Every structure is written in structure tokens, then in C-alpha cells.
User: Fold this.
Amino acid sequence: MTEDSEVETAAETGAETAAQTDTPPDRLSVSPGSDHYEPEHLQRGIGIRFNGVEKHNVEEYCVSEGWIKVAAGNSRDRKGNPMTIKLKGTVEPYYES
Assistant:
């Protein structure tokens, strides 16, 4: 009986990973210094719909908390990273391809 349960668990795990590949992560950042930087997802291409409008200047997003960070003009911090503004609303990430 344990062998059958192991086979079922492996089948369920395979189904979960297939479903996860179609859904973008809950939180993602384009900055390599961030803990939420995942280049494999960024290479695949992620689009962000914020309050029903597509945004192309998103630096970081979080679906569960409902916010995005966008660049604030051409301003830079002392390390050369873009200054960001946190906007709250409905975040809908999707894979572009």
C-alpha cells in the first residue's frame, strides 16, 4: 500500500508543477539584488495588468498584498537604482508568450 501512495503522490506533484508553470509567482522583482528576483520567470516574459491597465515600467509586484513598484521618472538613488513609488490596487500578472 505504501508503494501505491508514493505513486499517487508523485503523480499529484507532477500535476502541481505543471499548473505552477502557467501561473506567474506571487511576488517578483527585476532587480538582481532582491530576494524576489527569479530570472527564469523574467526570461519567459511577464506582463502586469494593474487596475485593468497594462503597465510596462513595473520594477516589482506582489499579488497577495496588492501593490506594484514603478520607477519615479528618471530619478536615481545613491546606488544608481531607480527611485520607485508603491501603488496599491488589483495586480494581475500573466505570461506574455
Remarks:
- The chain has a mean pLDDT of 84.
- Residues 2-22 form the longest helix (21 residues).
- Residues 24-95 form one domain.
